[in-house]
Write a structure and sequence with these properties.
heterotetramer, A alpha+beta (338), B alpha/beta (145), C alpha/beta (267), D alpha/beta (281), B: 145 residues, alpha/beta, Rossmann fold, 4 strands, 16% strand, C: 267 residues, 2 domains, 5-stranded mixed sheet, 39% helix, 11% strand
């Protein structure tokens, strides 16, 4: 679809949020509570934190929650009744005021969950999700989207991208059919516009390396000592993977209460020792350095080859969340010059 | 509506309280049938998480009982347990888990009557408190939903 | 700062240690744990008020386990962790040289375990006043409110286990949460799973936690985990006069007993 | 395959029709679909695997150990080791379990037509092999000589004892069984020695021959060099991997090795393919 250019007044956002809510859609947006900015359900525009550079966690939980029911079951005396999830109950959701990197994150995630075989739960959630992002006015030292094919005003992944072009106005690019559906439903809130050059209105983020170089370098670096060196201070937690918008690894767990039970899917991380450990005790990735290598290789070598998508959008969340300051951009830069 | 019948789980040691409970039975002392006894080698073996597991599995009250001090079959298991209970009770209190629903006691193999009293009084107390809804909701209903 | 560097450089230059665990400049305005094996690398070593990571954690990691001997830049929290680890037979005195630094940032030179014990005792203890106030606030809540407070506080937990991974005392090869036969603690990060996990962890650290606050610092969603452990440490100090991280020979409160322990709560 | 299922995580319900004790802690289940329609729609090919689940304990991964030529049921053989296998071992005939599958790729037996086959298996790794062995034996005229070399730690640990006997009795199969030194019994008439050693003793010709190897990592490690010495090229050596898996279709991420997912792109790999992967299996 060709991008439709529109304008929307800041003062109209309040009406937009309210009307989206009354139409039965759930609106999720960055909300700061107890000093933490994360996506939360909002009912009015006042609740939204438009200033944060990025939420602590990505928007991925809107389509890939940290814990999610895959099926439930009921055990009877001599049988088991399996109840599948009701996909029709999955709500329509708007991801509002996320960043372009949040939106871009859904692309590699979608590739994981829908290539070869389709994960219907994920797909339904994504189909029912509309993404209205806002271009970044600010960036911090951890942002590196421009190095991984993104930008502070990147449209990919978003259905509508808003860019603040004045104190009062957002420039709105309607990118997809889903975006157009929102435009059509609330056409009175939007005004026509010509194409606007967004560059002066968004943050400048220097490009530090390119995904092509990383991909090329990795071809010869598997046995390199760089992994030992970089992973030395890694404590082996899963914070990086869990806040990452593109990490899709999960675990499947059963929980039973009496005769009823559920089979859950919950986030998992390649950084954990037990992620790959066999029952026999044999572990293909015994050392933390191997697990760190897997993380980088998966995002910059394996995933591009399997699914033609890089598994990193440059949001810098992993680096911000890391307790031992493993800065992924810095490490990638080191790989690029290796 | 029928009266609320609490589910009470008793974690008891094999050597004293379990034998004591046996004595209650053989002495034909009648006591509340709301209690389900789980026998352990020693109170020192009772992992505190078992208590929360019991609540999570639908218990409304818990009794933990073993040998009197200095009577432990393994010399000191109940002493270690006593400290652990103190600390566990503290953290439960702090985290808002209802410690009125957890009763600790020493019941020796000769105290059949005391066992009946403990069970009956706990039963009465839990009846007053009602079902442990907040924990059951968190540990069961929310998960199955 | 210069003194620390001098000591560190000498230790490496004179081959007294193979490895020094310290800090270097990190990304943005952060500092980060770093490892030095050559005297010339020491120029990168820094120490300032941001160096609050409890790097005693690395003593149980491969890099330190492989070294025959090492030195560590140790603020009182690190010193206390080392003493506690030593008391649990996790680190030998002859293997480690402690470069002690007070909470004010003053280098006190190399410490053997005896000196470390003295140092540990003279340094301030406790947690931030706002954390203490939070404990009091929670304790003053009615039961149900307290329960809801914690359920809500734990609800953002994503079970990344950063609290465990960055805790020097969490060195078990196989954590209780990984025990799956039966599954002891629920794996899923739902509210109930989170409550049990943090409760279990606090209990396992009871009497062993040295209150460095690292769990709270590393938590990506800022759960006030440190106050759980602190509340227990405080209780244990009051009740059993036992304090972790003060002595290299020490048995944690829950591994010992006295015949006069309180039992007014036991029927 | 899961066409009428709501999601790809929904299992078929299967009834345990028969349980065979193969060795200490090793059992074989014969499973039948509860729903006749499922049974009709279901098909698999040799080499594929499935996710077997006990509701309440979780899922576990085994290959389908029966041959696709034997219709109407599937079989799996497992050693009791972890949480789910322990729970499985406690089940009785008539109990119900879940099954998702089939997943993964296949042994390219169509390409092996007119060739000699050498199967080399160790311990509990015979089950994945058994499917392909029976498949080839049921299509016996398609292949030339069939040799099976199977070893286990001890005589008791040999699985499929009845079938081993049956194969021994067949004139069109050359079977060699061996046990590790010290694992023999006084009655033991087979060989004594490790699989790679026995393999080099027997020295099957690599001429027009495919070798299929499956066993514990240590056996694999020492078997490949022997095969190489015998003149087997990497394209003619196959193995089946079993990494830790959860989902079975390349999403959960844990069986990712290099650019492949063992569950989706494997589990069957030729040695040539294996050598292109990092050694994370």
């Amino acid at each position: 679809m060709e991008i439709i250019n529109k304008l929307i007044d800041k003062s109209s956002l309040s009406a937009l949020i309210e009307r989206l809510n009354t139409s039965g859609k759930q609106v999720y947006a960055p909300v700061t509570k107890n000093g933490l900015c994360d996506f939360a359900k909002v009912e009015s525009v006042q609740e939204i934190d438009f200033d944060s550079i990025a939420t602590i966690q990505s928007a991925k939980s809107l389509v890939f929650p940290k814990v999610e029911k895959l099926l439930s079951y009921e055990k009877t005396y001599d049988d088991v009744i399996v109840k599948e999830v009701d996909l029709t109950k999955i709500p329509e959701v708007i991801a509002f005021a996320g960043r372009p990197c949040d939106a871009a994150g859904f692309i590699p995630l979608n590739a994981i969950f829908t290539s070869d075989s389709v994960d219907q739960i994920f797909k339904t959630r994504l189909d029912k999700l509309s993404i209205i992002s806002i271009s970044c006015k600010k960036a911090d030292d951890f942002c590196f989207c421009t190095s991984v094919n993104g930008s502070p005003s990147n449209t990919s992944g978003s259905d509508i991208l808003l860019t603040e072009i004045s104190e009062t106005t957002y420039y709105a690019e309607i990118i997809t059919e889903k975006g157009k559906a929102i435009l059509d439903a609330y056409a009175d809130l939007f005004k026509d516009s010509a194409v606007v050059d967004k560059t002066p209105f968004v943050a400048k983020i220097d490009k530090q390396f390119s995904t092509e170089i990383i991909n090329e370098k990795l071809k010869t670096l598997f046995e390199s000592d760089i992994w030992d060196h970089q992973a030395m201070r890694c404590v082996g937690c899963g914070a990086c993977a869990f806040v990452c918008p593109a990490c899709g690894c999960f675990d499947i767990q059963d929980e039973t209460k009496g005769k009823d039970g559920v089979r859950h899917r919950c986030w998992d991380s390649c950084g954990f020792k037990i992620f790959t450990m066999h029952t026999s005790g044999h572990n293909p990735r015994e050392k933390q350095a191997q697990r760190w290598r897997q993380r980088i290789f998966h995002k910059f070598s394996y995933q591009p080859e399997q699914q033609q998508e890089f598994g990193c959008v440059g949001c810098g969340r992993c680096s911000r969340a890391c307790p031992s300051d493993m800065n992924i951009a810095e490490h990638l830069k080191a790989i690029a010059v290796k | 509506m029928s009266e609320f019948e609490p589910k009470i789980v008793a974690f008891v040691c094999n050597w004293c309280t379990y034998a004591g409970a046996d004595l209650t039975g053989t002495s034909r002392i009648k006591y509340s049938a709301n209690v389900r006894i789980v026998r352990f080698p020693c109170t020192g073996r009772i992992d505190y998480m078992l208590l929360t597991k019991a609540f999570a599995s639908g218990a409304d009250g818990i009794i933990v009982s073993g040998c009197h001090p200095n009577d432990c079959h393994y010399t000191s298991g109940n002493f270690y347990a006593r400290r652990r209970w103190m600390v566990f009770k503290k953290i439960c209190d702090f985290m808002g888990i209802d410690t009125r629903r957890i009763v600790f006691s020493w019941v020796s193999a000769a105290e059949g009557g005391k066992w009946a009293e403990i069970v009956n009084s706990t039963n009465e107390e839990i009846k007053k408190l009602g079902p442990y809804e907040s924990y059951h909701k968190l540990s069961t209903q929310d998960i199955l939903a | 700062m210069e003194e620390i560097k001098k000591i560190a450089k000498e230790l490496l230059a004179e081959n007294k240690v193979q490895l020094i665990v310290g800090f270097e400049k990190g990304s943005a305005n952060k500092v980060r744990p770093a490892f030095f094996t050559k005297p010339e690398e020491i120029d990168q070593l820094i120490y300032n008020e941001y160096c609050i990571h409890n790097i005693a954690l690395y003593l149980k990691k491969d890099i330190c386990q492989k070294a025959n001997n090492l030195a560590i830049i140790a603020n009182p929290n690190v010193v206390r962790s080392i003493l506690q680890l030593a008391s649990e037979n996790q680190i030998a005195e002859e293997k480690i040289k402690i470069i002690g630094i007070s909470f004010e940032g003053k280098c006190v030179g190399l410490l053997d375990f005896k000196a470390a014990e003295e140092f540990s005792k003279t340094q301030p203890k406790g947690i931030k006043p706002e954390d203490k106030a939070l404990i009091e606030k929670i304790q003053a809540m009615p039961l149900e409110e307290r329960f809801n407070y914690w359920v809500e506080a734990f609800s953002p937990c994503i079970k990344c286990y950063a609290c465990r991974a960055s805790c020097p005392m969490c060195y078990c090869g196989k954590c209780n949460v990984e025990t799956n036969n039966p599954q002891w603690i629920p794996v899923a990060p739902h509210k109930y799973g989170n409550l049990e996990w943090h409760m279990m962890r606090a209990m396992h650290l009871a009497g062993r936690c040295i209150n460095c606050g690292e769990c709270n610092r590393s938590c990506p969603v800022n759960i006030p985990l440190n106050i759980l452990s602190y509340m227990l440490s405080d209780f244990i100090l009051d009740e059993f006069d036992s304090e972790a991280g003060m002595n290299a020979v020490f048995t944690p409160a829950l591994s010992v007993y006295t015949s006069v322990d309180k039992e007014n709560f036991i029927k | 395959m899961n066409m009428e299922k709501n999601t790809i995580y929904s299992p078929y319900k299967m009834k345990i029709e028969k349980i065979t004790e193969e060795a200490p802690f090793v059992k074989t289940f014969r499973l039948k679909f509860i729903n006749d329609e499922d049974a009709e729609n279901f098909s698999f090919r040799t080499g594929q695997f499935g996710e077997y689940s006990i509701f309440g304990e979780g899922e576990t991964t085994f290959c389908i150990a029966s041959s696709p030529t034997r219709k109407g049921y599937i079989e799996c053989t497992f050693r009791q080791a972890g949480r789910v296998t322990k729970a499985l071992a406690n089940l009785d005939e008539g109990d119900i379990i879940g099954f998702r599958g089939p997943y993964g790729n296949i042994f390219p037996i169509d390409e092996w037509k007119g060739k000699n086959l050498v199967f080399i298996a160790g311990g509990i790794a015979l089950p994945p092999m058994r499917s392909v062995i029976w498949n080839c034996l049921d299509l016996r005229e398609n292949f030339k000589d069939i040799t099976i070399i199977y070893g286990a730690r001890s005589v008791a640990d040999l699985v499929y004892k009845n079938e081993l006997k049956e194969w021994e009795g067949r004139s069109d199969v050359n079977i060699v069984t061996t046990v590790d030194p010290g694992g023999e019994t006084p009655e033991w008439t087979g060989k004594i020695g490790f699989v790679p050693t026995v393999l080099s003793e027997i020295a099957p010709s690599s001429e027009n021959t495919i070798a299929i190897v499956c066993g514990p990592p240590i056996m694999i490690k020492f078997t490949f060099p022997v095969l190489e010495k015998l003149g087997f090229t990497d394209e003619n050596v196959y193995t089946t991997l079993e990494n830790r898996m959860k989902c079975g279709f390349g999403k959960c991420g844990r069986c990712n090795v290099g650019k492949v997912f063992v569950c989706k792109d494997g589990p069957v790999f030729s040695l040539k393919q294996l050598k292109e992967l990092p050694a994370e299996y």
